[in-house]
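Dear support,

Our group has been running a series of protein-ligand predictions, and this particular one with zinc ion is the one our PI (initials K.S.) wants archived with full inputs and outputs. We had some confusion internally about which version of the output was final, so please treat the block below as the authoritative record. The input we submitted was:
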Amino acid sequence: MSDDTYTPAPNGWCCFHCGETFPFTRGGYRAARVHFGVTPDWAPDCIERRTKPDSILLDEARRARIASQQFLKERDEAIQAEEIAACTLASWKRAIKGAPTEHEARCAFDSMEGRALAAEAVLAELQRTAPDALTAARIAVAGPGTYYPLTLPSSGDRSAVQ
Ligand SMILES: [Zn+2]
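Confirmed final output from the archive:
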């Protein structure tokens, strides 16, 4: 047996201050929680009722109700934010297959964007240096009749594609 436990009485817990007993039932657990508090540092209910004025107890009860309402509001907001994040993640997962998290989906998207920018720069350079080869490659990949010429930056603006 450890130092912070003891063998309970067969009829349940007993308050050393007021003698009230709490059986080992669901209702007894709830009543004991109310009487003794949530953690051992709480003063038992019977002690607070004898040592604190009613005005203080009523004030504490009101503050506790207000804190409880604030907690419930924050909990509801957190649940709503979680649902929005889950929807966002689901849409990212649909857009980018195999991305288990929104962060990885964004990384995959950034990688795709980077490869697309590099491919556009390569195509622009190919258009400038070997336009016939580029046309042949486009027809081979996309089929005849699907050729759309690249819109190249003017010669003075080549830095845009590098
Ligand atoms: Zn008591």
